[in-house]
Amino acid sequence: MTVDTGQELGGTIPRARVEDDAPRLEPMLDLEWSRAIDLPQTALAAATPAELRRAWVHRAPEDRVLALFRASAGMAGQIPAPWWLRAVAVF
To answer: Three-class SS of residue 60?
Structure first.
């Protein structure tokens, strides 16, 4: 006995993934911000405060740092940041 359900079997089987169909990855702001303020491994042997300022927030263009800081702070509220960044972000 055969029952016709009105559905084709081909419609229920997902098609194979192709390269153009690759998953779209977007950075999570919290993760991106935490990586931006992380100190590199060489900072562990810092002898002066200036040697500690090696994180991305200290080296990147100011407009990019401010944009990422504002976007991250807008979603999570208070986030860890250097004092000078908080002062600059107010303006």
So the answer is: coil
Give, for 71, the enclosing helix (H) or strand (E).
helix 62-76
Asked if 32 contacts 72 with a C-beta cutoff of 8 angstroms, the reply is yes
- Phi, psi of 37, rounded to the nearest 5 degrees: -100, -5
DSSP string, 14-38: PPPP-GGGPPPP---HHHHHHHHHP
Q: Rounded distance, CA 18 to CA 24, Å?
A: 13
- Maximum distance among all Cα pairs of the chain, rounded to whole angstroms: 84
d(CA 69, CA 89): 8
Express each pLDDT in 42-84 by its tens digit.
Answer: 656 778 877 777 788 888 999 999 999 988 887 666 788 888 8
Q: What pTM does this model have?
A: 0.59
pLDDT in tens, 20-35: 666 766 668 878 888 8
